[in-house]
Write a structure and sequence with these properties.
By secondary structure, this protein is mostly helical. It has one domain. Helix 1 runs antiparallel to helix 2. The longest helix is centred in the N-terminal third of the chain and has 12 residues. The chain starts with a strand and ends in a 5-residue tail after the last helix.
Length: 62
């Protein structure tokens, strides 16, 4: 089970997209996010927080 905290996810979003986006998403994320849970994965996808998009926004190359 790969679980991360809301605080950790918001830190990643803040670095990738800026503080405004992190603030916007803050109310929509659960306190604990299970990366292997279909429900949590669907929520992250709906919010545009896919691994590929985050990696790209942080300056990584695929």
């Amino acid at each position: 089970m790969a679980v991360i905290t809301k605080t950790h996810m918001l830190g990643v979003v803040r670095r990738a997209y800026g503080p405004e986006q992190a603030e916007t998403l803050s109310g929509r994320l659960p306190d604990r996010i299970d990366l292997e849970s279909p429900a949590d994965s669907a929520l992250l996808f709906e919010l545009g927080l896919t691994p590929d998009r985050l990696f790209s926004a942080l300056g990584g190359e695929l």
